[in-house]
């Protein structure tokens, strides 16, 4: 779920931000919108929840990039992306907007809003949700790298694109509640609202049709956002198609077992398990003391690594090198991870249902057999859940082959653009 050209966070010697590798435990938490009572009670009630009419209100609109058609083609091909769908130049804006945090309290978030130069006056909207990031500067509205690839691909093909940074990333306030799917969906939905307001201000109004995609952690968020839109979360938007890429849709049935049976590489497992446990413990009482979870010397350093300022490379250097989860976790918590109980089990189950609904729109699931960050079994499980929920048409799992996690994204992203173009 991170943003790296490598299959995982294990690429040694890399200096660029991790661009796409989604991982073991991110997977661990990208799930459903509804939380069981045991988890919901862990979040204190607040009397200051933001009124619905304020959510998505614009705080600022800042232009951050502009390319003509040749320029955006070069930008994409420089990153080894298929730019054959490019028809327009693009202009990108950072939106700051009002939303709510994981407790329902008013806060602000940022995201990237990208428009085609030319084309239709009224535009369909693509929602693109990104993979795992620990450094706030890698988020789409701030970092000029792979986090912007889907935005530029889809905008250059003629659609507007809203890419939320999520809470606590980009220029948003507070720490990032990693793998808290409910708050990621809230921030994503409010980003769509902010995009609608910005589009009106910029003279490029939206049609209301939404095409949802996302990579890795963002693939899970895209499914959950689609469910929210399908249930009428905002009357201004109509879900038209879903095309998530390599999402961790089945935590209990695929992701947890994959941590221990070799389907997920060890470096990615260390990274995502650490991130997940630290971030989730801020929301739910998974542990009282990091020494109850992490072995020495990692217990004294691991929480500080996930402050939004460290990079993925920083984190990997501070975790046990060439080791497994056994070297990171205490024996007791290692056993608990293998067979989750209590609050840990409740958190996983609360995030394990984004495919348990019946979309009335075309759905395509993209994944790669060679992925050792998010095993392809996630997509197959998602397809099966959708069929059990009553989806009548096909739910294809489009295998990108024996490529790694980011390689699957590189192959799938242009296919998603063509799929969305066919439905417009």
Folded structure, characterized:
The chain is α/β, with parallel strands linked by helices and about 425 residues long. The protein has a domain at about 30-250 and about 350-420: Alpha/Beta hydrolase fold, catalytic domain (Rossmann fold, 3-Layer(aba) Sandwich). The chain is built from 14 helices and 9 strands. Strand 6 (about 205-215), helix 5 (about 215-230) and strand 7 (about 240-245) form a beta-alpha-beta unit. A 7-stranded mixed sheet has the order 1-2-3-5-4-6-7, with helices on both faces. The chain has a two-stranded parallel sheet with strand order 8-9. The chain has helices at about 35-40, 70-75, 150-155, 180-200, 215-230, 250-260, 265-280, 300-305, 310-320, 325-330, 330-340, 340-350, 375-390, 405-420; strands at about 60-65, 90-100, 105-115, 125-130, 160-165, 205-215, 240-245, 365, 395-400.
Helices and strands, with pairings:
Blueprint: H1 37-40, E1 58-67, H2 69-77, E2 89-100, E3 106-117, E4 123-129, H3 149-156, E5 160-164, H4 181-201, E6 206-215, H5 217-230, E7 238-245, H6 251-261, H7 266-281, H8 302-305, H9 312-318, H10 325-328, H11 331-338, H12 342-350, E8 365-367, H13 377-388, E9 397-399, H14 405-422
Parallel strand pairs: 4-5, 4-6, 6-7, 8-9
Antiparallel strand pairs: 1-2, 2-3, 3-5
Helix pairs in contact: 4-5
């Amino acid at each position: 779920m991170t943003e790296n050209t490598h299959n995982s966070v294990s690429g040694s010697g890399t200096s660029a931000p991790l661009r796409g590798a989604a991982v073991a435990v991110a997977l661990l938490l990208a799930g459903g919108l509804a939380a069981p009572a045991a988890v919901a009670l862990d979040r204190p009630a607040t009397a200051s929840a933001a009124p619905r009419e304020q959510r998505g209100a614009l705080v600022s609109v800042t232009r951050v990039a502009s390319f003509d058609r040749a320029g955006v083609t070069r930008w994409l091909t420089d990153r080894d992306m298929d730019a054959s769908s490019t028809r327009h130049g693009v202009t990108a804006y950072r939106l700051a907007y009002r939303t709510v945090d994981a407790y329902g309290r008013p806060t602000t978030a940022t995201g990237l809003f990208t428009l085609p130069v030319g084309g239709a006056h009224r535009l369909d909207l693509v929602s693109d949700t990104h993979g795992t990031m620990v450094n706030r500067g890698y988020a789409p509205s701030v970092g000029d790298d792979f986090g912007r690839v889907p935005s530029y691909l889809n905008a250059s093909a003629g659609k507007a694109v809203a890419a939320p940074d999520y809470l606590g990333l980009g220029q948003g306030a507070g720490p990032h509640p990693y793998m808290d799917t409910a708050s990621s969906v809230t921030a994503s939905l409010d980003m769509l609202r902010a995009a609608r307001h910005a589009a009106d201000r910029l003279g490029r109004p939206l049609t209301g049709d939404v095409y949802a995609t996302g990579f890795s952690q963002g693939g899970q968020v895209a499914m959950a956002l689609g469910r929210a839109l399908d249930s009428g979360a905002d009357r201004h938007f109509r879900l038209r198609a879903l095309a998530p890429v390599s999402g961790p849709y089945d935590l209990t049935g695929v992701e947890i077992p994959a941590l221990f049976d070799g389907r997920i590489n060890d470096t990615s497992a260390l990274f995502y398990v650490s991130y997940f446990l630290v971030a989730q413990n801020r929301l739910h009482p998974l542990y009282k003391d990091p020494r109850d979870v992490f072995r020495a010397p990692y217990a004294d350093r691991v929480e500080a690594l996930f402050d939004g300022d460290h990079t993925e490379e920083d984190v990997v250097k501070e975790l046990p090198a060439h080791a497994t989860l056994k070297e990171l976790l205490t024996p007791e918590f290692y056993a608990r991870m293998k067979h989750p109980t209590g609050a840990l089990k409740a958190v996983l189950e609360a995030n394990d249902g984004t495919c348990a609904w019946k979309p009335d729109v075309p759905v395509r699931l993209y994944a790669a057999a060679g992925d050792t960050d998010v095993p392809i079994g996630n997509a197959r499980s998602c397809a099966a859940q959708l069929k059990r929920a009553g989806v009548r048409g096909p739910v294809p799992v489009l295998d990108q082959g024996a490529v790694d996690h980011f390689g699957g994204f590189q192959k799938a992203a242009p296919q998603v653009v063509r799929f969305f173009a066919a439905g417009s």
